[in-house]
Specification:
About 45% of the residues lie in helices and about 30% in strands. It is an alpha/beta fold and about 160 residues long. Strands 1, 2, 3, 4, 5, 6 and 7 form a seven-stranded mixed sheet that branches. It starts with a strand and ends with a strand. It has one domain: Alpha-Beta Complex (2-enoyl-CoA Hydratase, Chain A, domain 1).
Length: about 160
């Protein structure tokens, strides 16, 4: 597997961006893919599409550059190998949404969002040394947790930090 493919995921993650990135990852099956990420995050469903594509091509290394936040954090953690630049910052927070509708619709949307949060949290819990207690604490306080590259190394978010 000597051929490498570089893919860049920068900016807001939406359906259009997820489609383009997912397509490149799947088309590169059997090749080593370097997925460079610098993103404030975006919508979880498109993010999960990228994660799904990464399960088709299991040779995806994720490289954090700049900011890796929210949905981008879950994508980053789904890489077979994970590394980041020394100035990279990671951000975790509970999901947010703006919903409107009748009471039953609101209840259904809240239940769906709780399930999405659980799925995203499971990725964090399975791939790092971050505890459920820490994630719950961040969400209860409605905070955003900033993680430096050194902290990311300690928490096994990354395997290495490049200069």
């Amino acid at each position: 597997m000597s051929e490498k493919v570089d893919i860049f995921l920068f900016g807001h993650i939406d359906a259009k961006k997820a489609e383009a990135v997912s397509q490149k990852i799947i088309e590169s099956k059997g090749k080593q893919v370097n997925l460079y990420i610098s993103s404030e995050g975006g919508f979880l469903h498109p993010g999960f599409a990228i994660i799904g594509a990464m399960s088709v091509n299991k040779n995806v290394t994720t490289i954090g550059l700049g900011r890796v936040a929210s949905t981008a954090f879950a994508i980053f953690l789904s890489g077979k190998k994970r590394t980041c630049h020394k100035n990279c910052l990671f951000f975790y927070h509970g999901i947010s949404d703006t919903i409107e509708g009748e009471i039953q619709q609101l209840k259904e949307m809240v239940a769906a969002n709780v399930e999405l949060q659980n799925q995203a949290d499971q990725i964090v819990l399975n791939k790092t040394l971050i505890t459920k207690k820490k994630l719950t604490s961040i969400k209860k306080k409605s905070q955003t947790w900033m993680i430096t590259s050194d902290e990311a190394l300690d928490l096994r978010i990354v395997e290495g930090v490049c200069l």
